[in-house]
Amino acid sequence: MQIHEFSGEEYEQSVRECFFPVIARTHPDFRGRVELQELDETVLLTRAHWGGPMQAARTDRMIAKTSTDHLILFCLYLGGNAHVHQHDRFAEVATFSGVMSETRSPWELVTPTGSRVLSMHFFREMLPLRTDEITEACARRVDPTTPAMQLLSGYLGRLWEVAEDLTASQRLDAGRAAIDLLAMTLRNVAPSVPGGEASASVLLDMMRMHVRDHLSDPHLRVEELARRHHVSVSRVYTLFERMGTTPGAYLRQQRLLTARAMLSEPRYARFAISRIAAAVGFLDLSTFERAFRRQYGITPAGWRREHLDSGPLQ
Fold first, then answer.
1. Which of 39, 114, 155, 262 could form a disulfide with 51 if both were Cys (CB 3.0 to 4.6 A apart)?
2. Helix, strand, coil abundance in the chain, percent, nearest 5
3. End of a domain among 186, 209, 242?
């Protein structure tokens, strides 16, 4: 766990390090604290507390100058209240309610009092909703009394408590589960978007689960997904377009994410790289190494050396 404590003058730098660049205004006696739990390089949990009023904004100019236009921030307010402005909408958020924002468009946050917030921060493409559905869900208050929100808030709270005791692969799975719960919650928040029928969402969720459960099958292809779920190949492509990806790209992403988690996990330290590649469905080691390097900018062996104290068998 990482901990950042800051004054009002240090707030902008702290937010830049923990989340993304903003312009902030605080009172002279403002104090804050942020604790970070990294579930994976793509998913971050934070717990923040600050005393006194605060205002933060992300402008068009800042968006143009930074590369963080593909991030999502979901905040669960445990104390205090806030006003969030994005996409010409204002959300008034009170204790135990939540709100989502995205970094690709201007955003403003105003907290008239001190606040305590549990947040989840992740890449936009990981949320299994269409681009228009994500935009429609931003800056909308999530009612804490709905069953879906109660389930999500309870899960995030418990995940924060146990995250440090989980293995790398367990943290990866837990982060995915949290994002899936968020998607389920948001479907009841945003106005319905044409083409977003519930049956399609359920079918897509089933396909994504099937992919994650069968990563070791090197013969898993889009044709197999279509056959097992009794739909056409074109229907499978249409469903994955809701996430802004293709079935093949999603399968490759999940294989590489799982391989990366295994390479970071001490209990797999004596596994040969080729064994890990086979465990996530790559029959050819060189193909796996090329895909891994293209995705993460480092070889599997290099990643393992950086994330384990002792070198593994090759």
1. 114
2. 45, 25, 30
3. 186
